[in-house]
Amino acid sequence: MAQRLAMEYVNATMQMTEFQLNQFLLTADTSYISHRVKVLGAGEQEIVLEEAGGEEVHLSFERRGGVYIGSLSCRVVNPHLINAVRKLFFTYKGTGTVNRIYKDLTMMYYYEAGSVRRISEVRPGGIKLIYQHKYSLAEMASVFKLQTVEREIAQIRQEINSLLDTRNRCQQEAVIREVDERLAEAAHRLFRLEA
């Protein structure tokens, strides 16, 4: 088995509540890892995880409402620090690219909300796709539902065209008023669906 040299987090993000952030800070200190918090302007914080040997990881957290959005882009070499950052990323369902760097290759993992969506092997000779997430039943149902909306939009447009044809052919004021009311209702439904 090849020995991992480092892990790299590229444009990784995660979110947590203030309670979760405080819980993380309570458990962040171990015999190998310590932390310090820098409070920045506008409710932002920077958490620095430091390994006993001196390697550091800087995590920026921006407060939006009652949630902290953390961002992370770094390369980590120390195994204890790798483990601490990995736990943080998985616990709080991180999104982004994680590169596991070995001597002759890099394994690229793309995560979305804590789930692996794609794995690629990167070698000097090129990139090879190892795994790609396929749609789950729930995701396929939501895609189908989106197509249902598209069909309903097409049906309303046909209805509007038919009403406009009727209005153009008709000479009676009462019929024109009724058609105008139905056109307004159909236009409102169309607007809601397209939004």
Q: Let me know the average pLDDT.
A: 86
Distance between the termini: 52 Å
Helix/strand-derived category reads alpha+beta
**Within the largest sheet, what's the order of strands?**
2-3-4-5-1-6-7-8-9
Helix percent reads 40-55%
Shape descriptor: elongated
Q: How many beta-strand runs? A: 9
- Classify the beta-strand content into a percent band: 35-45%
SSE arrangement, N to C:
EHEEEEHEEEEHH
> Which residue ranges are poorly predicted, with pLDDT under 50 across at least 5 consecutive positions?
none
Keywords: Coiled coil
Protein name: Non-ribosomal peptide synthetase module
Organism: Paenibacillus tritici
Describe the overall structure.
The chain has 195 residues and is an alpha+beta fold. It folds into two domains: 6-132; 137-194. The chain has helices spanning 18-28, 79-91, 137-169, 173-194, and strands at residues 6-17, 33-39, 45-51, 56-64, 67-76, 95-101, 106-112, 115-123, 126-132. A nine-stranded antiparallel β-sheet has the order 2-3-4-5-1-6-7-8-9. Strand 3 and strand 4 (56-64) form a beta hairpin. Helix 3 (137-169) packs antiparallel against helix 4. The longest helix is centred in the C-terminal third of the chain and has 33 residues, at 137-169. It is elongated and about 90 Å long. The mean pLDDT is 86.
